[in-house]
Amino acid sequence: MGGSLGLAARSKGLASPVVGFDIDPRALELALERGAVDESASDPAEAVSGADLVFLSTPLRVIVEVFEEIAPALTPGMLVTDVGSTKSRVVREVGSRVPRGVHFIGGHPIAGSEHEGISAADEDLYRGAYWILTPTDETDPAAYGRLVRFIGGLDARVLALPADRHDEAMALMSHLPQFVASVLMEFAADAMKGEPGLPFAAGGGFRDMTRVASSSPDMWLGILRDNREAALDALDGFRDSLSQARGLLAGEDWEGLGELLAAAQAARRSMPEKPGVRVGDLVEVDVEIPDRPGALAGITTAVGESGVNIEDLHIVHSAEGARGTVRLLVEGRDAAARAEDSLTSHGYRASVRESE
Amino acid sequence: MGGSLGLAARSKGLASPVVGFDIDPRALELALERGAVDESASDPAEAVSGADLVFLSTPLRVIVEVFEEIAPALTPGMLVTDVGSTKSRVVREVGSRVPRGVHFIGGHPIAGSEHEGISAADEDLYRGAYWILTPTDETDPAAYGRLVRFIGGLDARVLALPADRHDEAMALMSHLPQFVASVLMEFAADAMKGEPGLPFAAGGGFRDMTRVASSSPDMWLGILRDNREAALDALDGFRDSLSQARGLLAGEDWEGLGELLAAAQAARRSMPEKPGVRVGDLVEVDVEIPDRPGALAGITTAVGESGVNIEDLHIVHSAEGARGTVRLLVEGRDAAARAEDSLTSHGYRASVRESE
Question: Residue B312 in contact with residue B149, Cβ under 8 Å?
């Protein structure tokens, strides 16, 4: 994650210098050699000293600890984010430790692979990927806008979600599939013992379904610890569905089973593709920021709910009084209309700006 | 399947002419246009008339019916095979209808995708893929050798398995994963209703795991009907594993869960890659054919159990008496030694031929 981020930020000229620290000196050396960082630091506090923007790309379980290490070196105006796969605990625990004037916004790029470490770093990892941000009631709109622009500069697409909804969604779409893949792989490997010729014959379906089982167990333990309750909820729902489907097969209810398979096919085929790099024109949507806490989180979440990415975000005439306006840029007029509808239905005053 | 086969056979000069029939006249016309067949026939019997080798590339549920249609046009020496995804029923039902002197050998290429029809035909579909054959006690070694050579000519790799073990293995490695993928997709789609932004954020893991859910429901209903008992066994075993794993998560047994994830990771990482096209030297293994029914099936299965593909197969001095010898060609000396060991342990007299 960190290596890919450094490679991308440097190649796109988004930051200079990029300063890195890694607990493993060899990884840090390799990051220098590969051009993922301009400079290496000898400890986390040195790495962040004087930085505009800090990415905590550590394993999930040490994010809070590393934040505590860097906190003394953070100065007002600095913006810190992370790339952890769960958000509620991190946002809560880091949030309570943020020095005055420093900004922290939780993040989670939906990118990566079962490969780990600086040797797997890929300058294009984030290209066209979603990057979830989890603003809170305290999030500063201007800092949020800076982060959105940086992520947009990586050709990634920002989607805003409250941390708890992020975690529920990931339990369903990431943690449950990972759990199922690992159990399926282990079950099949056990059942295939004594049939040495068979694993060779595994087709693409089995290979696809078990690919994530080769991910790091440590990483997944950390994720499942943080998000245990939501993962259990998702798992129990899935087990109920599986039992019902088993009943159709056992009872030779071919009509019912056919309906299930057809519904799954329709759902899979209607699933949006990975977003890819933005190609449409940017359209501006202006939203009045109400004078209450959490306005930015509410606005960005309302837009996220409509499935629209915020490509850029600026604060306009915020200095004129208590009420400011946030100007969102989204891709294309359809997306702008959807964002406007969703904002309006959530009680915000939003309007698509007509271009001349 | 049929379209890809025609394209490959024609481009590699394995058969001429390739004559095709399809129940859908437009598909047949497109097959001609795309060069998947040299000639189109007006019915199945006309298509097979005078053929050396017949591939039944129909949906699973009509293989037997189509075989009955072509049976009157089959003459002694002709070789018929199929590409159905389950084998026990087809091999039993077609086997009991084979005219005297005609050869039928069940087959299942482990290839294909969630896309269907002639428009998805791909000349390279079988390149480097496994192709399972299910010889029986009645299978004629010379006919089997012809089929092995044809499949080898497609750059696919033959693995022999008895039909019932093929079906058990596929229940585990294909039908169970498909079932789980469909249930996971349907469950997640249902749970994501009202969160229109979320499906966009599905990462590669979810996409990989649900890809096969977009396959044809009709095809899968046919497979699950044929192989219901083995699929239920696999499903029940998987559900037990899932319940045990859930117990680890619910009970916060992080050590136990870590062991499970690590075992799954190790199993996935040690899973052999798709075989790819043969690159090593061919080594000959001679095996005496005992004078008893089922000798060929026994020999090919023993080799399959060792994970070795038979690249070619000839009958040598079979005319000299009741005892013949079958000469197998396998890739490399290691594979030859493994095949020899497995054959010897199954009571066959086998020897690797030393090259000069």
Answer: yes
Q: Is the pLDDT of residue A33 over 80?
A: yes
pLDDT value at A319 more than 50: no
d(CA B340, CA B81): 28
Nearest CA in chain A to B335: A197
Mean per-residue pLDDT for A160-184? 93
Closest residue in chain B to residue A245, using alpha carbons only: B183
Q: Which residues does chain A have within 8 Å of residue B213's beta carbon, measured at their own beta carbons? A: 264-265, 267-268
Residue ranges of E strands in A218-323: 282-289, 312-316
Distance in Å from the first CA to the final CA of chain B: 41
Straight-line distance from the first to the last Cα atom of chain A, in angstroms, rounded to the nearest whole number: 41
Q: Which has the closest alpha carbon to A170: B265, B251, B191?
A: B191
Q: Which residue of chain A comes nearest to B108, CA vs CA? A: A201
**Which distant-in-sequence residues (6+ apart) come within 8 Å of B113 by Cβ?**
A204, B120
pLDDT at residue B201, as a whole number: 66
- pLDDT tens track for A250-269: 999 999 999 999 999 999 88
Nearest to B205 among A177, A198, A207 (CB): A177
Residue B282 phi/psi, 5° resolution?
-85, 135
Cβ–Cβ below 8 Å for B217 and A184: no
- Distance of alpha carbon B324 from alpha carbon B277, whole angstroms: 30
pLDDT at A2 (0 to 100)? 85
- Using DSSP bridges, classify how beta strands B324-331 and A282-289 pair: parallel, antiparallel or unpaired: unpaired
Note the pLDDT tens digit of each residue in A83-96: 999 999 999 999 99
A239 with B236: Cβ contact below 8 A? no
Q: Which of B27, B162, B23, B235 is nearest to A198 (CA)?
A: B162
- Nearest CB partner across the interface for A237, out of B191, B254, B263: B191
Query: What gap in Å lies between CA A256 and CA A301, rounded to an integer?
Result: 37
CA–CA min distance A133, chain B (Å)? 12
Query: How far is A351 from A353, CA to CA, in rounded Å?
Result: 6
Residues of chain B positioned with their CB less than 8 A from the CB of A231? 249
Amino acid letter, residue B112:
G
Distances (CA, A) of A133 to A2, A85, B291, B303: 17, 11, 72, 55
The pLDDT mean for chain B works out to 89
pLDDT tens-place string over residues A320-341: 455 678 889 888 888 899 999 9
Q: Which two tokens stand for residue B89?
A: 């029923």
Residues A182-224 have pLDDT tens digits of 999 999 999 888 666 666 667 788 988 999 999 899 999 999 9
Is the Cβ–Cβ distance between A315 and A266 less than 8 Å? no
Confidence of residue A275 (pLDDT cuts 50, 70, 90): low
Q: Which residue of B has its CA nearest to A211?
A: B268
B5 vs B122: CA distance, rounded Å: 8
Q: Does B214 contact A239 at a Cβ distance shorter than 8 Å?
A: no
Query: Are the Cβ atoms of B197 and A238 closer than 8 angstroms?
Result: no
Model pTM?
0.80
Q: Are A95 and A138 in contact (CB under 8 A)?
A: yes
**From the CA of A282, how many Å to the nearest CA of chain B?**
19
Under an 8 A CB cutoff, do A195 and B169 touch?
yes
Q: Is the dihedral of CA A106, A111, A112, A113 positive or negative?
A: positive
pLDDT score recorded for residue B332: 87
Which amino acid is it at A203?
G
Helices (H), ranges, A163-216: 163-170, 176-191, 204-210
Q: Rounded to whole angstroms, how far apart are CA atoms B162 and B158?
A: 13
For chains A and B, CB pairs below 8 A equal 281
Structure tokens of A281? 């024109």
